[in-house]
Amino acid sequence: MMKWLGNVLVSPGEGGVYGERTLDGYRVWDPYRSKLAALYTLGGGVELTPEIRVLYLGAANGTTVSHVADYVETVYAVEFAPRPMQDLLEVARRRRNIVPIMADANRPEEYAPFMEAVDLLYQDVAQPNQVEIAERNLVFLKPGGHLILMLKTRSVDVRRDPAEVLAEARTGLEKRLDIADVRWLDPYHHDHAAIVCSRRE
Amino acid sequence: MLQRYWFGDVDEEGCRAAGTDPAALAERAATLRTGMDSFVPIDWEVARDCGVVRTREEYVDLLRSVCTTLARKKIAQSYQGRDVELLQMVRMLDELDNVINLLQERAAEWYQVTNPSFSRKYRSLPAKKMLGIIRKGARGGLSDVADEIDRLAGTRSRLMREVSARADEVMPNTSALIGGLVAARLLSKAGGLETLARMPGSTIQVIGSERALFSHLRGGTPPPKHGIIFQHRRVHNAPRPVRGRVARVLAAKLAIAARLDYYRGEAVPEFLKSAQARIDEAGVEA
Question: pTM of this prediction?
Answer without folding.
Answer: 0.73
